[in-house]
Amino acid sequence: MGTNITFKRPDGKDATGYLANAARGNAPGVVVIQEWWGLSENIKGLVDRFAVAGFDALAPDLYDGVVVPYHDADAAGKEMNSLNFIEATEQNVRGAVQYLKRNGAKVGLTGFCMGGAVTIIGAAKIPELTAGVAFYGIPPEQAAKPADVKIPLQGHFANKDDWCTPAAVDAFEKAMKAAGKDFEAFRYDADHAFVNEERAAVHDRQAAELAWGRATDFFKKHLG
């Protein structure tokens, strides 16, 4: 359904990504950020699904074409740890937001796992954003403090998550509320990455569909 495109970062360099457009014109935009595996078929499928739901959706490729097989967590960790999160957010992700906003549309940001952390960094650092939805990812405070978040934010988290742990989620939610931020968190009795349909060991269809409905409703409310 979608297509690979090249777009400009704020610094003028080229970036690549996967774009799917809604059937209607002047649709709001959603930028979708990959898991630590890269711009996988699962992420492309979510971009297509956002387009069907009425959004122009774009997933920037933060790994420049590298997609790690699901069985190789060591390689995925190596890719993620070599990524400059701040530069990726302020250049590739912001460039994708600007691309979708070029016709004056409101744009939201969402991401999964590593992309959830990038979503929260973007919520603090990308001025063109209107709303954000983070799935099971929280950045370290040196990357983005809750007090720096500038847009309404929704979060989806797994109770059986040993990476983005329930304790980390509780602390983040408490800090967001203390800072007076517009934040709602949903918790699911599921594993980390429960939205990923390609990973049968962790995918939870019921939780994934519930989270999807909440996320798209949130974007429709804030983006139009």
UniProtKB/TrEMBL annotation:
Transmembrane segments: none annotated. Pfam families: DLH. Residues 17-222 form the Dienelactone hydrolase domain. GO terms for molecular function: hydrolase activity. This is Dienelactone hydrolase domain-containing protein. It comes from Afipia clevelandensis ATCC 49720.
